[in-house]
Structures are given as structure tokens and as C-alpha cells.
Design a protein that fits this description.
Helix content: 25-40%
Strand content: 15-25%
Radius of gyration: 22 Å
Order of helices and strands: HHHEEEHEHHEEEEHH
Number of strands: 8
Largest sheet: 5 strands, antiparallel
Distance between the termini: 12 Å
Strand order of the largest sheet: 3-4-5-6-7
Structural class: alpha+beta
Length: about 240
């Protein structure tokens, strides 16, 4: 009768409803100049239109919806926002690509002093971005084939066949916060398995990431999501169906 494959997706409906309601609230930054003169108010309006156009160019509304959905499913949604060579960079990041020191993570977000972002990037793309290191990039070892893991969002309906390519390499972006306001020990680095492409001072007091927790952790760094909390309920519904 079809009940063997049918399921009442309680978790899915909750996640989709929460994501749609939160994501439809568009970010609207503005400048408060109530007591200012007319010329300053006109300037604030132009600045506001400029910021809104930049948000539309970066497709921030779609990016925000993806981060909210990640927070519901995986517990924490991650976004990368930084300055590029020509414009602001905004990108959705998978939680599985972010690595933190476990002893620092026990103290929560304020205790984390270093973050590593490991990405799989095309060899040609990195060589075009860093032409002065093209030889080292071309000789870097290929990225290892990741094992199939449901937590990374792999499609379980696929056959599981994977074709390994030598054109993809592992690139590690690392940040280390400075110890104090007057300290100069903050660092930022971009590394391959065989070479360090960039190692420079980082004066920022925070990481270029935003972390949205569905439910903030009582202890630790990563939050908890609806899928984790409703797993028992969903299993009971499936068993009854």
C-alpha cells in the first residue's frame, strides 16, 4: 500500500518552516540620524541604498537562508565574510570543513583562539590566484577521496561511485587571534600539504566567520540542531507508520 516507504517527516516540516520564516526577514541596515541636519540625512540615505545594493550583489538573502537551514540541520550554520582584492566576500561554509582546538572549544566561542578551514580547491584556480606559487601548487599532492558520510549531505540515493582526480588539492586557511589589544602575535596563513603560500599578521579581534547556533551549547563550541533533538521522536513516528 506504499506505507513501507512513506514517512511522516516531522523533522523536515519543522526545519523548513523555521528556515522560511527566519530567512524571509531581510537584513535592513540603516543609519540613525534623527537629530542631524538635512544634508547628513540625505547622505545617510545614499549610504543605506549603497549597502542594500551590495547585499543584493552578494546574494546575501539566499546565503542567509542556507546558513539558517544548516543551523537547524547540523546545529550551527557557518558563513565566511571577509574583504577580497576588489570587493567583499560572502560564502556559506560547511561545518565539516571547520576545525577548532578541542581543549579551547570546551570553553565556548570566546575560548577559541585559532580556526582552520580546510577546503578542496581546483589546482588551476589556486595557480591563477597565486601565480607566483604556480610550480608549488602544481606539484602539491592531490586531495584524498573523502569517505561517504551522511553528515556531509551526500546523496544516499547515488550508487556511491567516485572518480578521483589529481586536479583537486587540499588548501588550509588558518587564523590565530592576537593575545591582547597591544599584542602583535595574531597570524593568518594559507597552506598546502607541501608549501605555505601566505603567512602574515592578523590584527582582527575576531574570526572572519559568523556562527549561527540553532540552540546554543551549554558547554563547547558547536550548537545543537532540530534534527538531533527530534531524532527520537522521528524514529517513533517511523516505527508507528
Amino acid at each position: 500500500s506504499g506505507f513501507r516507504s512513506a514517512r511522516l517527516f516531522v523533522t523536515t516540516s519543522i526545519v523548513d518552516t523555521f528556515t522560511s520564516r527566519i530567512a524571509k526577514k531581510r537584513p535592513m541596515p540603516m543609519f540613525v540620524v534623527d537629530d542631524a541636519e538635512w544634508s547628513l540625512k540625505r547622505k545617510a540615505q545614499r549610504f543605506r541604498r549603497f549597502i542594500h545594493s551590495k547585499l543584493r550583489e552578494a546574494d546575501y538573502e539566499r546565503l542567509c537562508a542556507g546558513i539558517v537551514n544548516d543551523a537547524c540541520v547540523r546545529g550551527t550554520g557557518v558563513g565566511y565574510i571577509d574583504e577580497g582584492d576588489e570587493d567583499v566576500i560572502s560564502e556559506r561554509v560547511h561545518r565539516s570543513e571547520i576545525y577548532v582546538e578541542p581543549r579551547e572549544a570546551r570553553q565556548g566561542a570566546k575560548g577559541v583562539r585559532q580556526i582552520h578551514w580546510i577546503r578542496q580547491v581546483s589546482r588551476e584556480v589556486m595557480a591563477a590566484k597565486f601565480p607566483e606559487f604556480a610550480d608549488q601548487i602544481m606539484s602539491a599532492p592531490a586531495s584524498s577521496v573523502p569517505s561517504r558520510d551522511a553528515s556531509t549531505g551526500d546523496d544516499w540515493l547515488l550508487s556511491g561511485g567516485i572518480v578521483e582526480s589529481d586536479d583537486v588539492i587540499d588548501v588550509t586557511y588558518s587564523w590565530h587571534l592576537r593575545s591582547g589589544v597591544n599584542s602583535t602575535d595574531g597570524r593568518r596563513a594559507i597552506c598546502l600539504d607541501n608549501f605555505t603560500m601566505m603567512f602574515e599578521q592578523w590584527d582582527g579581534d575576531r574570526f572572519p566567520f559568523l556562527f549561527l547556533h540553532r540552540y546554543k551549547p551549554k558547554r563547547g563550541f558547536w550548537g545543537r540542531g532540530d534534527v538531533e533533538l527530534l531524532a527520537d521522536l522521528q524514529a517513533r513516528v517511523n516505527a508507528i507508520v
